[in-house]
Design a protein that fits this description.
The protein has 476 residues and is α+β, with helices and mostly antiparallel strands. The chain is 36% helix and 15% strand. Residues 305-453 form the PPIase cyclophilin-type domain. One of its GO terms (molecular function) is peptidyl-prolyl cis-trans isomerase activity. Keywords: Thylakoid. This is PPIase cyclophilin-type domain-containing protein.
């Protein structure tokens, strides 16, 4: 559905995913209200205004030409009058130019404030209106691993160390002369916090995990691939080795943070205490087979295979009810043998599963900077609200909307989101950001996702790690 410029541009366009009719395409998956006042705040000039300005400039040039031509070629003026005219020509020209500029500005202001085209204008030549999202934060996580690290509710000292190192990921993207001095400062800062706050960091780890935590801490500070090694590679100005050591250090930080966060840091609303919930992380492994008998081809080379494995990390810290319901469905075998269907931007599970299977979980989104999720509430990305688990990541996993109300997720239909930045708004955010319960990310098998076609089958789904974090309610 393209926007017709002949229609009123103040109409609201809203297309959402639902379990019965779920369309995620670059042209249809839009949930944006066009507001002229917002456009004036965040846009420079509309296409029509640019055309007006261009036409006004043309009018101004014609006006100048006409006046100057009349003055230069008048047969009624004496030579003395012509000399005087030429003498004052620069001042006259400036005055005419100012008049033309004033007319241009007035026309642009009129066009921005009027909801309809000016009389006599034919809008058919104008390009279609394009919805644009406003985002004050361009550093939205772009990988599942980064989003999952940021979502761990850990010790504040560990978060300070993590933030210092995460910045290196952005600094490494700078081409040619990289800011190694800034990188060195960031790593030294992280190392100082790790050494000075050792007791505080280890005190946050449960007693039965202290030994494991101490080993990970030693690896982070002094081990191969730790902060000392990373500092050496930065001094050598070797970006490839810096990248490898950085990934190793961030992995150690994530492991420590997970040890520091053994359960939920908030209480669930009373009405949801009898729902299944995930009080931490879990990993689900799905084995997918081609429905037409063809093969999956590894992108890095290798032997084509009939079945491919996809692993999804479920984040119960940000979406305990959604992950709990999904994990229980996996344990119950609800997705074994299920068919998949594909759109341009998503891979969906079969919506024909019995609706009585699974819980009717409310929309559950953890806003960035908050300590607990919001329920039955979407986020306003235009106002700067961002989720801890963004949809705008390739391989994000979310629940579809319920058939009846978008305040609830489908009891069992989920989808893999095939994020494409070219289909996004300003800031690289999906048009559907903040509208769905994202509950995890694909960490293994992202290369398999684009090869999945409608009719392919999930042969099996099982929890391979974190089963102990699933809390099941009494039988209904």
């Amino acid at each position: 559905m393209f926007v017709n410029p002949r229609q009123n541009l103040q109409q609201s366009m809203a297309v959402s995913l639902s379990s019965s009719s779920l369309i995620i395409s670059p042209k249809l998956s839009i949930n944006v209200t066009f507001n002229p006042s917002v456009s004036r705040r965040h846009c420079r000039l509309s296409p029509r205004s640019m055309i007006l300005l261009t036409r006004s400039s043309s009018f101004q040039r014609k006006l100048n030409s006409c006046i100057f031509s009349k003055l230069e070629h008048s047969t009624e003026c004496s030579d003395q009058q012509k000399a005087i005219t030429r003498l004052y020509m620069p001042a006259l020209e400036r005055g005419v130019m100012r008049l033309g500029a004033t007319i241009s500005v007035i026309l642009v202001i009129i066009q921005l404030t009027l909801p309809v085209p000016l009389p006599g204008w034919d809008p058919s030549f104008l390009p279609p209106a394009k919805a644009v999202l406003y985002s004050p934060d361009t550093k939205v996580p772009r990988t599942g691993e980064l989003a999952l690290r940021k979502a761990i509710p850990a010790n504040t000292n560990m978060k300070s160390i993590q933030n210092s190192l995460e910045e290196l990921s952005y600094l490494l993207r700078i081409p040619q002369r990289k800011p190694y001095g800034t990188m060195e400062g960031n790593v030294k800062k992280a190392l100082k916090i790790a050494v000075d706050e050792k007791e505080s960091i280890l005190a946050s780890i449960p007693a039965d995990q202290k030994e494991n935590g101490l080993a990970i801490y030693a690896s982070l500070t002094d081990g191969k691939g730790g902060l000392q090694t990373l500092l050496g590679y930065i001094k050598d100005k070797d970006p490839d080795k810096v990248s490898v050591a950085l990934a190793s250090s961030l992995d150690s930080i994530a492991q420590l943070e997970l040890l520091q966060a053994p359960g939920l840091s908030f209480l669930l609303p009373a009405q949801y205490t009898n729902y299944p919930r995930l009080t931490g992380r879990a990993i689900v492994e799905l084995v997918v087979e081609k429905g037409d008998g063809s093969m999956f081809t590894p992108q890095s080379g290798g032997i084509p295979r009939k079945a491919a494995t996809i692993q999804v990390v479920l984040d119960g810290y940000s979406a305990p009810l959604t992950t709990g319901n999904f994990a229980k469905l996996v344990v119950d075998g609800a997705y074994d043998g299920m068919k998949l269907k594909c759109t341009d931007q998503a891979i969906l599970s079969d919506g024909g599963i019995d609706k009585s299977i699974g819980y009717r979980v409310p929309l559950e989104i953890m806003p960035s900077g908050q300590f607990e999720p919001l329920y039955k509430t979407t986020l306003s990305i235009q106002d700067g609200e961002l989720p801890v688990l963004p949809l705008s990541v390739y391989g994000a996993v979310a629940m579809a909307h319920d058939d009846v109300s978008e305040e609830y997720s489908s009891p069992n239909q989920f989808f893999f989101y095939l994020y494409d930045k070219s289909y996004s708004g300003l800031g690289g955010l999906s048009f559907d950001e903040g509208q769905f319960s994202v509950f995890g990310y694909t960490t293994i098998g992202r290369d398999v996702l684009p090869q999945i076609k409608t009719g392919d089958i999930v042969r099996s789904a099982k929890i391979v790690d974190g089963r102990d974090n699933l809390v099941l309610p009494a039988e209904r």
